[in-house]
């Protein structure tokens, strides 16, 4: 059974005002000093962010347990410095992002300018094990049209600098400013993938392979495919759903490759439109169906994804839990809907953050 690892980026916020607080260096130092972080916490681009990475697991129930444990430990560590942690794709309140001090991030500030300063966005990245680069690239080629559905399900960033962006995932729109971000054309082989990456690095526009921000890429350090299209999910059970669906997509794609089935040859232009649609309206309106690339109700498109990965999820024992969790997201709404409903109730973005702090720990 393929192993799965999940990385979540959380915001550090003032529990009274909801404004982001630049405390990650202090929190990471405390975690390292006490050994309580268990090497799962990492620094991110901005001091207002705290990232954790789960250990690889083959049972999705273990992933769920570890996500909840890491969120609680992050909250405990932040609390020692008078802060809270919250799973939000963007800060609802205006922020003054503080760049973490190291050579890499200083290079990014110099090279990319204002977009680097404004990248205070939090995502959820999922790693799934693959047997080889060839299998990994075959997977990347075949999962492309299905990824926008994950963006829609996870969308959790409707507010930007104190205003409603009119997107469910404005994080996605901010993320797309990186020159290497977004969907990719078909690679066809591991050799072509690595040649493309080498050519991109050779331009000097990006510093190294770590700045390849494809929607799905071969991980640099691990024998995995890394999928990077999701907002950090407000609810831990949604994060588990996203990870479950991604493993199902990887296994389904690998089986198609072994059977000699060719990937869908959708253009990057169409894939970008599908991504835009998912970021714009989440699961509340229409999405582009991955096969026909035509608009259909979001519920029907989510159902199509579940049917696409049904055999893979059945083999891992995850099918019924995935169906129930997807139905819950469609009924309750994604994180963006929860945030907007809270704002309609309270009329205060600070209260939105406070409510989401509670959701993060549930």
TrEMBL record:
InterPro entries: GCL_type2/YbdK_subfam, GCS2, Gln_synth/guanido_kin_cat_dom, YbdK
EC number in record: 6.3.2.2
Primary enzyme class: ligase
Coiled-coil features, chain-numbered ranges: none
Catalytic reactions on record: L-cysteine + L-glutamate + ATP = gamma-L-glutamyl-L-cysteine + ADP + phosphate + H(+)
Pfam family, one: GCS2
One BP annotation, GO: modified amino acid biosynthetic process
GO MF term (any one): ATP binding
Keyword terms of this UniProt record: ATP-binding, Ligase, Nucleotide-binding
Signal peptide (from-to): none
Similarity annotation: Belongs to the glutamate--cysteine ligase type 2 family. YbdK subfamily.
Role description: ATP-dependent carboxylate-amine ligase which exhibits weak glutamate--cysteine ligase activity.
Name of protein: Putative glutamate--cysteine ligase 2
């Amino acid at each position: 059974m393929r192993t799965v690892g999940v990385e979540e980026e959380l915001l550090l916020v003032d529990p009274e005002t909801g404004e982001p607080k630049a405390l990650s260096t202090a929190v990471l130092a405390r975690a390292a000093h006490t050994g309580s972080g268990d090497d799962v916490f990492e620094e991110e681009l901005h001091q207002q962010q705290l990232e954790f990475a789960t250990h690889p697991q083959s049972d999705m129930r273990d992933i769920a347990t570890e996500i909840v444990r890491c969120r609680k430990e992050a909250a405990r560590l932040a609390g020692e410095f008078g802060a809270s942690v919250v799973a939000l794709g963007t800060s609802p309140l205006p922020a003054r992002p503080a760049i973490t001090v190291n050579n890499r991030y200083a290079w990014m500030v110099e090279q990319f300018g204002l977009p680097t300063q404004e990248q205070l966005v939090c995502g959820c990245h999922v790693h799934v094990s693959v047997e080889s680069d060839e299998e990994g690239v075959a997977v990347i080629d075949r999962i492309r049209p299905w990824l926008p559905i994950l963006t829609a399900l996870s969308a959790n960033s409707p507010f930007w600098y104190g205003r409603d962006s009119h997107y469910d995932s404005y994080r996605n729109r901010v993320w797309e400013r990186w020159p290497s971000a977004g969907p990719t054309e078909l690679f066809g082989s591991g050799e072509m993938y690595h040649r493309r990456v080498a050519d991109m690095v050779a331009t000097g526009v990006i510093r190294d392979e770590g700045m390849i921000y494809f929607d799905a890429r071969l991980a640099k350090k691990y024998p995995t495919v890394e999928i990077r299209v999701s907002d950090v999910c407000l609810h831990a059970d949604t994060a588990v759903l996203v990870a479950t669906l991604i493993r199902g997509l990887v296994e389904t794609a690998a089986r198609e490759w072994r059977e000699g089935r060719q990937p869908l040859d959708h253009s990057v232009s169409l894939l970008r439109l599908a991504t835009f649609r998912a970021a714009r309206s989440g699961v509340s309106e229409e999405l582009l169906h991955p096969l026909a690339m035509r608009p259909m109700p979001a519920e029907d498109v989510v159902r199509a994804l579940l049917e696409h990965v049904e055999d893979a999820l059945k083999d891992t024992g995850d099918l019924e839990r995935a169906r129930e969790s997807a139905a819950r997201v469609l009924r309750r709404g994604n994180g963006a809907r929860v945030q907007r409903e809270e704002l309609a109730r309270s009329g205060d973005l600070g209260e939105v953050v406070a409510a989401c702090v509670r959701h993060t720990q549930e």
